[in-house]
């Protein structure tokens, strides 16, 4: 951004468009909403994984094929990947100062998170519907 | 800009971070680690959908020594982020900002994360 005093643009003109996008709290709030939802969902998933740890493929399919368990793990996947990309965005915006890199990394992280979330959710649905 | 080379304050190279600050940066690092760890989770779940052979491939990797080290790190990162995240939620509501309170919460989070990790592995092994 040019800051030289020889610019013909007015102070107001230079400042316009550089301020708040008026949506910062939305990101902040969603990070908290997903965090709160993840507390019970995570405890449930860890308990499920512990219970499944001694058994094979069949136990996985039976457990996550049940409607309630499929619902809970799909909720976990959707919410956790959303939480992950929200958090990664903050980290990237804090530490990557180069504008092009920042935008590129943010896009890559978001595409990866939503791609992995969709793959995982479709996998659970495939199991639940017995395909 | 002329102000670009000013020193930062507190100067990170000579400033010994208090435990609360170390835990704050650890919260971020575990967050990044957990995001990377979702690759493992997605691999495990999608392998289960592909079939028994694919699932057993993932299981074989997870019980190898590198798999177990990854899972141990993954589980501690998860429980640290979970416990410290709950502390952050208390901060968001404006509670426990006094020095002795943050100190106590630091200890609670560390003990909680270690205890949950130990309990999980005790049940698995």
Give an overview of the whole structure.
The complex is a heterodimer of chains A (131) and B (125). Chain A has 5 helices and no strands. By secondary structure, chain A is mainly α. Chain A has one domain: Up-down Bundle (3 helical TM bundles of succinate and fumarate reductases). The model of chain A has no long low-confidence stretch (mean pLDDT 92). Chain B is mainly alpha-helical and 125 residues long. Chain B has one domain (20-124): 3 helical TM bundles of succinate and fumarate reductases (Up-down Bundle), CATH 1.20.1300.10. Chain B is 78% helix and 0% strand. Chain B has helices spanning 19-50, 52-63, 65-92, 99-124. The N and C termini of chain B lie far apart (58 Å). The interface between A and B is medium-sized, with 35 and 30 residues.
Judging by the overall fold, what is the CATH architecture of chain B?
Up-down Bundle
Sheet/helix structural class of chain A: mainly alpha
Q: Which descriptor suits the 3D outline of chain B?
A: elongated
CATH level 1 class label of chain A: Mainly Alpha
Summing up helix and strand content along with how strands pair, one would put the structural category of chain B as mainly alpha
The percent of residues in helical segments of chain A reads over 70%
Question: What is the CATH topology of chain B?
Answer: 3 helical TM bundles of succinate and fumarate reductases
Order of helices and strands of chain B: HHHH
Which range does the strand content of chain B fall in?
A: under 5%
Subunit arrangement of the protein: heterodimer
Backbone CA Rg of chain A: 22 Å
Average pLDDT figure of chain B: 92
Major sheet attributes of chain B: none
Count of discrete alpha- or pi-helical segments spanning 4 or more residues of chain A: 5
Number of strands of chain B: 0
Low-confidence stretches of chain A: none
């Amino acid at each position: 951004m040019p800051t030289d005093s020889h610019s013909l643009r007015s102070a107001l003109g230079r400042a316009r468009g550089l301020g708040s996008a008026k949506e910062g709290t939305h990101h902040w709030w969603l990070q908290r909403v997903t965090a709160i939802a993840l507390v019970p969902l995570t405890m449930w998933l860890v308990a499920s994984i512990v219970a499944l740890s001694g058994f094979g493929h069949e136990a996985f399919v039976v457990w996550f094929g049940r409607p309630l368990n499929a619902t809970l793990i799909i909720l976990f996947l959707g919410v956790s990947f959303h939480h992950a990309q929200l958090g990664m965005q903050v980290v990237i915006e804090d530490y990557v100062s180069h504008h092009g890199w920042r935008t590129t990394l943010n896009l890559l992280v978001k595409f990866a998170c939503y791609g992995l979330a969709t793959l995982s959710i479709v996998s659970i649905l495939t199991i639940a519907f017995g395909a | 800009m002329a102000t670009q080379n000013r020193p930062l304050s507190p100067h990170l190279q000579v400033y010994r971070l208090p435990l609360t600050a170390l835990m704050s940066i650890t919260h971020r690092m575990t967050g990044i680690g957990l995001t990377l760890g979702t690759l493992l989770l997605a691999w495990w779940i999608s392998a289960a959908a592909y079939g028994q052979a694919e699932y057993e491939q993932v299981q074989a990797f997870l019980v190898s020594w590198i798999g177990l080290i990854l899972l141990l790190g993954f589980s501690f990162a998860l429980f640290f982020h979970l416990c410290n995240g709950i502390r952050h939620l208390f901060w968001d509501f404006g509670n426990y900002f006094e020095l002795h309170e943050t100190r106590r919460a630091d200890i609670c989070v560390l003990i909680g994360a270690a205890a949950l990790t130990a309990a999980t592995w005790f049940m698995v092994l």
